[in-house]
Amino acid sequence: MKSPQTVIVVRLCFFLLLLTALSVQAAEVNKTLKLVSGHWPPYVEKDAPGGGAAIDLVSRILKRAGYDTVASIDSWPRSLQGSAIGIYDVLATAWFTKDRDRELQFSEPYYENVTRFIKRKDSPVRFRSYADLKNLMVGVVTGRDYGEKFDQAQGFLRIAKSHVIENLLLMQQRRIDLTLGDEWVIRHELTQYFPNAVNEFEFLPQPVSKRGLHIAVSRTRPDHKEIIHAFNKALAAMRADGSMQKLLDRYRAELVHLGSTEHRPLQDTGGNKD
């Protein structure tokens, strides 16, 4: 018959083994990060290989950093709020703002979104300042963020539609003078819906805005700083060895070329501000 002391020791050892097993299991689960973003082709697409360019890039960077990922696509408000309160671990496509920074830890930018005006090739319109747009009709997408300078500019008429493809169609029909949007988004729309009309359009060279694209990790995670540090380190390594450039080139090659404003990936800036 075992002594009471032996029973206590055996039970204590069993408890410690169980606790260790649970801790290891929790750590393994913790290494699988829940990514989320709103639908944003070609950056985020449910049926696209890799989930779209941004989801694929972020997943590969995090994989190199030692994390597995599971991606979800939700509405943008739910993606943002869900990340802030910890339903999701990582918001995969985020522009930095001070308000968001209170609830989310931002990475270094892994890409740069460039917004430009696009016009018909036969149009004489140019853009060096907003004074050049006086009395013009410019197609915009309802709820889209084009940057503070564009929002504050006056002297032209904004024609709001639900989708950028509607504005491209209006411009083709000469019912508006210009529209604008992210370069890759517009090139994606032309690739999908206007492949035979690509030569009718061109970007204006002066950007409307440039903003770094980041991941943002929920501050509800106690290891949010560790994740960001690992992501930034892996991102720097992929830039150094050329694998990041190869991925960007592959996605760029899938989109129609428009004009002479081919976009290049953002170089390491050493900061989180856009």
Automatic annotation (TrEMBL):
The UniProt record lists the keyword Signal: yes
InterPro entries: Solute-binding_3/MltF_N
SMART domains listed in its UniProt record: PBPb (SM00062)
UniProt key word Signal: yes
Keywords associated with the record: Signal
Boundaries of every Solute-binding protein family 3/N-terminal domain copy: 34-255
Any Pfam family hit: SBP_bac_3
Matches recorded under PANTHER family: ABC TRANSPORTER SUBSTRATE-BINDING PROTEIN (PTHR35936:SF25), MEMBRANE-BOUND LYTIC MUREIN TRANSGLYCOSYLASE F (PTHR35936)
The protein's name in its UniProt record: Solute-binding protein family 3/N-terminal domain-containing protein
Record organism: hydrothermal vent metagenome
Native organism taxonomy: unclassified sequences, metagenomes, ecological metagenomes
